[in-house]
Amino acid sequence: MAEAYIVGAVRTPVGKKKGGLSAVHPTDLAAHTLKALIERTGVDPAAVDDVIMGCVMQFGPQSLDIARNAWLSAGLPESVPGVTIDRQCGSSQQAIHFAAQGVMSGTQDLVVAGGVESMSIVPMGSAVTAALEKGMPFPYGDGWVERYGNQEISQFRGAELMCDKWGFDREELERYAYESHQRAAKAIANGYFKEQIAPIAGVTDDEGPRSDTTLEKMAALKPLREGGRITAATSSQISDGAGAVLIASEAAVKAHGLTPRARVVTLALAGDDPVYMLTAPIPATRKALDRSGLSLDDIDVIEINEAFAPVPLAWMRELDADPAKTNPNGGAIALGHPLGGTGAVLMTKLLHELERVGGRYGLQTMCEGGGQANVTIIERC
Q1: CB of 114 within 8 A of CB of 66?
Q2: I need a labelling partner for 182 at 20 to 30 A (CA). Which of 71, 118, 248, 255 fits?
Q3: Averaged over 161-170, what is the pLDDT?
Q4: The predicted structure's pLDDT at residue 189
Q5: For the CA atoms of 114, 40, 77, 378, what is the dihedral angle to 10 degrees?
Q6: Strand partners, 263
Q7: Residue 368's pLDDT is what?
Q8: Does position 202 have pLDDT exceeding 90, yes or no?
Q9: How far is residue 3's CA from residue 243's CA, in Å, rounded to a whole number?
Q10: Whole-number pLDDT of residue 131
Q11: Residue 367 is among the residues annotated as catalytic for this protein
């Protein structure tokens, strides 16, 4: 099987809700990363075989195949096609998987993978809300109801169910969230993200981290559910952002004079209980490690999306992962979670952090709607 290499990765700053990126059209947000990726790698854009982008709310301004529209909006060649995919929060990580698989299969040589989400412009759940307002059925049909009943299926309930199962109390969740903010603030202050970010609309840094937050402030917040433990402080932030990654074959690296920065080692997927929804990174990581022959001790940097604090906490407990290696520069609780863009944003962070610390292997995973997860393991070149 052919090797797939990451030769470039770039992202926007992650903007907070109603923040500096809230007025940027999502197509332009994505186009900005595509243009920056081409400029930074120096590749001939006409040589790209496909553009694959993740986007969750493919509705309104994010509809009509935003991958294709963003490429064209960036002024790039009309000859290059684009496709938009939805694996919920893991959409752009799945885009990276599809791009790598195209190269590994030998049918493609240069593929751009990325993702975008403007949650300020297209709020979470927009498509479902609009459908219900028009009297259309809920996405779950008769077969689903027959299997799972009419119980509530939501990420918020799933997060609370995880707290029940693993015994997390509110204080433990808030300590984790506080650490995420502290790590993110330190990374920004030290300039760790500067090289990976393409500033846009006057925004140069991630807007989410709160260096002045305290455990006392977190403890004063009301839970998102009556009697629950999850609050806004222990949840990922509503965000706007995009990222893009260029995947190349060995032949393309030679033909275009590119510099491989990481090799794709393993791609893995798993499904788990859709009611709990957020637990699949655990079996998916086990599958990826088994397939690669690696252990977590071999992994130098880990990025696991902080959809809610119990997600990384349960993952670390089940896999006996090193907290120091896990989200070393903070996660989505502090830095934000622009849904379909997060997978590409995390890969950009993972690659640059591996390079900064001189690590060898990096692992990325995230929970996804429907009780799914992607895991990607890369090796720094």
Answers
A1: no
A2: 118
A3: 98
A4: 98
A5: -40
A6: 5, 379
A7: 98
A8: yes
A9: 22
A10: 87
A11: yes
**Other Cβ atoms closer than 10 A to 297:** 10
Q: Which two tokens stand for residue 108?
A: 């493609």
Q: How many Å apart are CA 309 and CA 166, to the nearest integer? A: 12
Q: Which one, of 379, 375, 40, 306, lies nearest residue 155 by Cα? A: 306
Question: SS3 of 9, please?
Answer: strand
Residue 330: which residues within 8 A CB-CB, separation 6 or more? 180, 181, 182, 183, 184, 185, 187, 209
Mean pLDDT score, 204-227: 96
Residue type, 124: M
Give yes or no: 337 in active site: yes
pLDDT band at residue 83 under the 50/70/90 scheme: very high
Q: Which residues contact 55 (CB under 8 A, 6 or more apart)?
A: 26, 62, 66, 67, 84, 85, 86, 91, 115, 116, 117, 339, 340, 341
Q: 376 CB contacts (<8 Å, ≥6 apart)?
A: 93, 96, 97, 264, 266, 267, 268, 288, 347, 363, 364, 365
pLDDT-based confidence at 4, cuts 50/70/90? Answer: very high
Residue type at position 44: D
Which residue in this structure is represented by tokens 């349960």? Answer: 314
Question: What is the arithmetic mean of pLDDT over 23-51?
Answer: 98
- Of 32, 181, 337, 352, the active-site residue reads 337
Indicate if the pLDDT at residue 138 is higher than 90: no
Point out the catalytic residue in the list 89, 97, 181, 352: 89
The span from the CA of 363 to the CA of 312, in Å, is 13
How many whole angstroms separate alpha carbon 186 and alpha carbon 198? 20
Question: Which one is catalytic: 163, 181, 352, 367?
Answer: 367
Give the mean pLDDT of the chain.
97
Helix axis angle for 281-292 and 310-319, nearest 10°, is 40
The band of 38, judged by pLDDT with boundaries at 50, 70 and 90, is very high
Residue 215: how many CB atoms within 10 A of its CB?
Answer: 13
Q: At what angle do helices 91-104 and 342-357 cross, to 10 degrees?
A: 70
Instruction: At 304, give phi and psi (nearest 5°).
Output: -120, 125
CA distance linking residue 3 with residue 26, whole number of Å: 32
